Amino acid sequence: MTAKHLERAAPGVQAAPTKKISPKASSSNSPALRPSSKIRDRHWERLAIVYIRQSSPHQVLENRESRERQYGLAQLAQQFGWPADRVLVIDEDQGLSGKFAENRSGFQRLLTEVTMDHVGMVLGLELSRLARSCKDWHHLVEVCAVFDTLLYDQDGVYNANDSNDRLLLGMKGAMSEYELITLRNRLERGRENKAARGELFLHLPIGYVKSPSGEVMQEPDEQARGVVQLVFDKFDELGTVWRVFRYLMQNEIQFGYRCFRGVKRGQLEWRPPTHTRVLAILRHPIYAGAYAYGFHRPGRKNPISGQVEGGKWFLSPDEIRVLIQGRVPAYISWEQYLANQRRLSENRSFPGAQGAARSGRALLSGLVVCGRCGHRMNVNYQPGKTKKPHYGCSTHLFEEREEPCVGLKAPPVDELVAQQVIRALEPASIDLSLRAATDIKLERERLHQHWQQRLERAQYESQRAERQYQSAEPENRLVVRTLEQRWEKSLRQERQLREEYDRFLAATPASLSDADADRIRLASQNISTLWHATETTPQDRKAIVRCLVDHVVVHVEKQSEHVDVAIHWHGGFASQHQVIRPVGSYTQLRDYDLLVARTKALHQEGRSLPAIAVQLNQEGFVPPRRRGLFTVGSLEPILQRLGLVGERYRNDLLGPDEWWILDLAKKLKVRARKVHYWAKQGWIHSRRTPAKHWIIWADNDELKRLNKLKLEVGSYTARRKPKLVTPKVRKK
């Protein structure tokens, strides 16, 4: 090849006089061309690396000329003097963008070879093939300068240690990066302009297809279209995404997907539902007939923490970049779509939101509002088996306040609201019974229609497989055997589906029987019985309350057991009520002063403790914790606080080394019942007061004996008579 031919094959390459190549440079004695005086013997002694890259898989398949030109650089390196076994081709980064270097293993391999001082020249068709980022490009140039590695493109050979070449390489790297930015901006602006017209449809969601003319229309398959509509109907009925998902799973209802790629592109496939897919259907504005572009916010990755910040999967309608209503056929109205978004927002367990109705025992979770600060109160459950609910306000933890808000136990307020709700529903019991029977009938009709569609589809698939089998030539056994197996498989699936439908029909008849209708009518007429039935779950009760009650405002005072309750009903009406809550001590009672005065008066009249308790109960006084009525035990703390104690609290009645049973039991670390048993058996010295209270005598010697006795007697009663039962002789 002459120098003229070389100039045609590689523009910008200068021809050099022909010479013999040393064995270090080539294994043969064929002449080589020196394209530039920058190539030295030390470069020939090392490798020549040809780096090949195209930005996308589409370019790899379609842009064949660029690919052939890049692979041709390996032949050009041999013409420059490198033997074929010393030319390394790196093409691992085919179909990858040059914007980043982290995901390109070929580029990392190139840098590794250069830093190991194995490379004499790096060849690329254009510098943009190596990198589209100034950071990666200048890093490569710097490494090539340190290890004296040349760079070559279709315009010439560059030495990174030469000032002119270094300036030219820097300018080319900047132009390559700017070219990528320009191309990306041009594509993005074109895409945004098409989206502004409402014509950019990349991937249509479930329930929509695109016609050959580009028009968007609803899914032509009746069953697939009906499942999408079912999601909106059940969400309006059940209220939460999770309950809709569970309904679809329990009834084995699947979604119809259109494949976007592959050999089945455009075909309808049936897949089980997922919670994420149900939420996406309820969130997407296209189901309300609106074209939406930019309702996802991608966010940015924090280089320090490595987390994506600022992203959001679904934006509100006010934040969507392009929103055109009435652009496509709709499944629901725009007003219903907005109502669904509000309901989804309220279902989230965020401060200020109601939250979804859960399985907890608290009836008004998410509905109780603190009358002092105006914030919603949280629900807390006590640890243990009982898990009693409690409404509390934690706003003071986030705001500076002198005194926190007071909470209350849930049962008093829950019982009040439940009574008011049952009272409100009783006049409409007949209408409710008729509506319940109608809803059950419609629900069964819908499920049976879905089963009929599944059976119709299975029958069509089996008939189609039969037609394919019948149309094949009998002599072509290779094809006939495959079609026969496909036909048998479709017949088995149809038979299995019919058996499942028979089982469903036996468990859920298509229409209500007279007995079922009468039972529903009787249950609906007695709202109270239906409310307290064991089959009625907490979620059902909460759903009923939320249909009638918007929120409940409670005013709780710390020094009072009386709580003012305002029930705000849907429609704007508010009813005022008052409940009694259990408090922790007598001082928190609103009538504490009156209770003290009345107790003192009864005691001054000479009445006994049982008589005082009976009189207080008759006059309507209630203990702090609301646990039944006043008893002798519940009166003793208040009498002790007032100084009106009985004999059991009078230490002046005790003589030397005498004990009350409770005090001696604490001293011995045993139960009071055990000491009482010893006294009745005569194992210890004891006497009784006029009020029949026991007083035990025990000095130091007796205490030692009783400590040994408690070890000998396991329980408070002895199965056999112990040895240490004889008390010490007491001096008179």
In short:
This protein is α+β, with helices and mostly antiparallel strands and about 725 residues long. Helix 10 (about 220-240) crosses helix 11 (about 240-250) and helix 15 (about 430-470) packs antiparallel against helix 17.
Report on the structure:
The protein is of the alpha+beta class. It folds into five domains: 186 residues, Resolvase, N-terminal catalytic domain (Rossmann fold); 134 residues, Hect, E3 ligase catalytic domain fold; 202 residues, no CATH class; 60 residues; 58 residues, Orthogonal Bundle (Multidrug-efflux Transporter Regulator, Chain: A, Domain 2), CATH 1.10.1660.10. It is built from 25 helices and 23 strands. The chain has a five-stranded mixed beta sheet with strand order 2-1-3-4-5, sandwiched between helices. Strands 14-18-19-20 form a four-stranded mixed beta sheet. Helix 15 runs antiparallel to helix 17. The chain starts with a helix and ends in a 20-residue tail after the last helix. The N terminus is likely disordered.
Structural topology:
Elements: H1 3-9, H2 41-44, E1 47-51, H3 57-62, H4 64-71, H5 73-79, E2 87-90, H6 105-115, E3 119-123, H7 127-130, H8 134-146, E4 150-153, E5 156-159, H9 163-196, E6 208-210, E7 216-218, H10 222-238, H11 241-250, E8 255-258, E9 268-271, H12 275-283, E10 291-293, E11 300-301, E12 308-309, E13 322-324, H13 334-347, E14 368-370, E15 378-381, E16 389-392, E17 408-409, H14 410-425, H15 429-471, H16 477-507, H17 514-525, H18 527-531, H19 538-548, E18 549-555, E19 562-569, E20 574-580, H20 592-604, H21 609-618, H22 632-642, E21 658-660, H23 661-668, H24 672-681, E22 685-688, E23 694-697, H25 700-712
Parallel strand pairs: 1-2, 1-3, 3-4, 14-18
Antiparallel strand pairs: 4-5, 6-7, 8-9, 10-13, 11-12, 15-16, 16-17, 18-19, 19-20, 21-23, 22-23
Helix pairs in contact: 8-9, 10-11, 15-16, 15-17, 23-24
